[in-house]
Design brief:
The complex is a heterodimer of chains A (about 375) and B (about 325). Chain A is about 60% helix and about 5% strand. Chain A is mostly helical and about 375 residues long. The radius of gyration of chain A is 23 Å and the shape is globular. In chain B, helix 6 links the parallel strand 6 and strand 7. Chain B is elongated and about 60 Å long. The chains are: A mainly alpha (about 375), B alpha/beta (about 325). The interface of A and B includes residues 66 and 135 of A.
Chain lengths: ~375, ~325
């Protein structure tokens, strides 16, 4: 042990800290920083004339405050919207990440959001709007102005049931998760449309509206801190931290990785695979329920078309964040970073006034690029 | 009532012996607020006239819609009403109906072959050219009344693949070029929020974070106008200093207007379009002649005349 290396195990394998691979999340973080810097530069040195003929705005900044009327270093509005606009999809992505690590896939989360939004919102309606009776009332007087916990519980239950059905289908009928959740995707969307015959459900109570639009951080810290209107972002980060800890430090998380890496080996080692799968899909459904509640509270309306394509955005966030679609690899932190990349791109394109047509093209390219990088990283690791 | 209708529709789909007569309706999409009002307009008119209608959902699928029309023809309906999924795919529908001699009425969305429709086919809608321009001209007048001569605005477009989004945006520029706007308008930025309130909220906040001064927002529909207003309100900007306009006069928009937020919207009479389509279909089925283009007028809604519209959508 000339240079202080420790000997590990019976085979005399040495542990060499310098050979330890850097966490894959680091790549994602670097990508996030790089994309942010690119947008900062594009804002500073206006290249807008290259792609459109809109008026010129000089001396702009992406992240920093260049306005006279505020005295903060960063442009707080920008940072807030970057966190807020991705929070709800991000909450779904936390559940989807666990399902993908488990070796499955969940295509139903967007539709579960739609169905849950409609049902939960029906229990959150207020009886009078500007002095008139609620024009979008679903139920009669008795179901108006209910205690805010009622729609929350209804929403969580809907998500829970949908997720549990997904899990049971996958675990006990042994059909591929792609098919099981595809079925749920179509059926749940049907429920969303059937619930009120396609009519939107609007005008929630004040307390329900404040779930997303209030100041939860202020309430939690007794007014010491304040982050008004950013509740979805706050919930997203709290859930991300919670599930990061769960995935890293608990048996639940270790089982997810074990089943995703090698299901047969996990079964041999005595893990009740079916039960664990039901649990993971149920949690994913529950998180979709949380997303639906926050989304309806934020927009003050529920519509049958809500959440369309959200499942694919959530999967894309996970994939960009380094979660492998073959299962067994990835992390919640990676997904959070992937979500932030998504959001920085959306805000960035708007800030440089690039048309929506190009935004979608670039978004698609980034998703494919992320998977290509992931494959490349994997094959390199396989050889090494 | 509607649930039983859907149930009977479902049963009708399952059974091979379809109904012998009545009017078949193929809607582009059920889960759309506006189209739902239109659909109810058809249903109510039919109930009042004691007619049986069978309404089906094409789920935004062109192929499915054509199949539904062919199924209607095969079941021997008296007339067909179509709310086209894709306005450029209507030639095949016209051909199929014409070959079978079944009258066909397009509703709400203008078919590409509108100028070459056979005699027993018609088109009922509101003229999109009038839609956002009415609201925009009113918006210009309000700016002028507030003493402004030059204004900066944001334009929020609907889904870019959609004809209405293209037309409603084009209307703004047509109004400006024709000199119908009382003030000089500069468009700061123009982006799509896909008709969605949530996306409009995010887009508006992104715009606000640039700190550029603006005098108003032109939104292609009410949902996006409401999203923009929610973002403006959250940012603590004085609602009186900006003028926001939408299109559709949905219940949510009217409530927002009553609360002193939304300034202008334009009412497209969905129920009248649905009722008009049914009338045209009934007349064509009876062999009577109808105008081939029937336009239901757009109506301007401001806080001054809002009371007349509260119960309409």
């Amino acid at each position: 042990m000339a240079n202080g290396e420790a000997l590990h195990g019976v085979g005399g394998l040495t542990y060499d800290p310098s050979r330890r691979a850097l966490p894959p999340e680091l790549n994602v973080l670097i990508a996030l920083v790089a994309i942010t810097v690119v947008f900062e530069l594009l804002n500073r040195y206006n290249f807008g004339w290259l792609w459109n003929d809109l008026p010129f705005q000089q001396g702009k900044s992406f992240l920093f405050n260049t306005r006279d009327n505020l005295d903060t270093l960063f442009n707080e509005q920008r940072i807030n919207i970057i966190l807020l606009q991705v929070a709800i999809t991000g909450i779904i992505a936390i559940g989807v990440t666990q399902v993908i690590i488990l070796g499955g896939i969940d295509l139903s989360s967007g539709s579960i959001v739609g169905a849950t939004a409609m049902i939960a919102m029906s229990f959150a309606q207020t009886a009078t709007v500007n002095g008139n009776p609620n024009p979008k009332a679903i139920f009669g007087e008795g179901f108006m102005d209910l205690w805010v916990l009622v729609p929350i519980l209804v929403g969580l239950t809907c998500g829970l049931i949908a997720g549990c059905v997904n899990g049971r289908l996958v675990a006990y009928t042994r059909i591929p998760p792609f098919i099981a959740t595809l079925g749920m995707m179509v059926s749940a969307r049907g429920v969303a449309k059937w619930w009120s015959n396609g009519n939107p459900v609007s005008f929630p109570t004040e307390s329900y509206a404040s779930l997303s639009n209030g100041d939860m951080l202020g309430g939690m810290t007794f007014g010491l801190l304040s982050w008004s209107g950013q509740n979805p972002a706050l919930v997203f980060f709290l859930l991300a931290i919670l599930f990061h800890l769960i995935m890293t430090y608990t048996l639940y998380g270790k089982r997810c990785y074990a089943i995703g890496s090698n299901e047969a080996a996990a079964r041999m080692s005595g893990i009740n695979i079916a039960r664990h799968k039901v649990l993971v899909y149920t949690i994913a459904g529950l998180l979709a329920g949380v997303a639906a509640i926050l989304l309806t509270s934020k927009t003050l309306t529920a519509q049958a078309g809500m959440g369309v394509m959200l499942e694919l955005d959530a999967i894309a966030m996970a994939v960009i964040g380094g979660v492998s679609l073959t299962g067994g690899r990835g992390s919640i932190i990676g997904t959070v970073l992937g979500a932030l990349i998504f959001s920085v791109i959306i805000s960035g394109f708007t800030s440089i006034q690039l048309d929506a047509y190009y935004q979608e093209m670039v978004k698609g390219a980034i998703i494919v690029g992320a998977v290509v990088m992931d494959q490349w990283r994997q094959s390199k690791r396989g050889r090494g | 009532m509607k649930k039983t209708l859907i149930a009977t529709g479902f049963v009708a789909l399952m059974s091979t012996t379809a109904m012998a007569d009545g009017i078949g309706v193929s809607m582009a999409l059920f889960d759309d607020n506006f189209l739902t009002v239109l659909r109810n307009g058809i249903q109510e008119q039919a109930d009042a006239a004691g007619l049986s209608v069978q309404i089906e959902d094409a789920q935004n699928d062109v192929a499915k819609q054509l199949d539904q029309i062919n199924n209607f023809i095969a079941s021997g309906v008296d007339a067909i009403i179509v709310n086209p999924v894709d306005t450029s795919a209507t030639q095949a529908m016209s051909d199929a109906a014409a070959a079978a001699g079944v009258p066909l009425v397009y509703v709400n969305r203008q078919p590409i072959n509108v100028d070459t429709l056979p005699d027993n086919q018609a088109f009922v809608a509101s003229n999109e050219v009038d839609s956002s321009s009415q609201g925009f001209i009113e918006q210009c007048n309000q700016w002028a009344a507030a003493g402004k001569s030059e204004v900066a605005v944001y334009v929020m477009q609907g889904e870019l693949s959609n004809q209405a989004a293209v037309q409603r945006t084009q209307n703004y520029y047509d109004v400006m070029e024709a000199g119908k706007c009382a003030v000089k308008v500069t468009v700061i930025d123009q982006q799509s929020a896909n008709w969605s309130r949530d996306q409009a909220q995010s887009l508006m906040t992104n715009w606000l974070s640039t700190g550029a001064a603006f005098d108003g927002v032109l939104a292609n529909n009410d949902e996006m106008a409401i999203g923009a207003l929610q973002a403006i309100k959250a940012a603590g900007i004085d609602m009186g200093s900006v003028i926001v306009s939408g299109v559709d006069a949905t219940q949510d928009a009217l409530a927002s207007m009553q609360a002193g937020e939304l300034d202008i919207t334009v009412f497209q009479n969905a129920a009248a379009q649905g009722g008009g389509a049914l009338d045209a279909a009934v007349k064509l089925a009876a062999g009577e002649a109808v105008e081939q283009k029937i336009f239901v007028a757009f109506e301007l809604v401001t806080p001054a005349n809002i009371d007349g519209y509260l119960a309409k959508n």
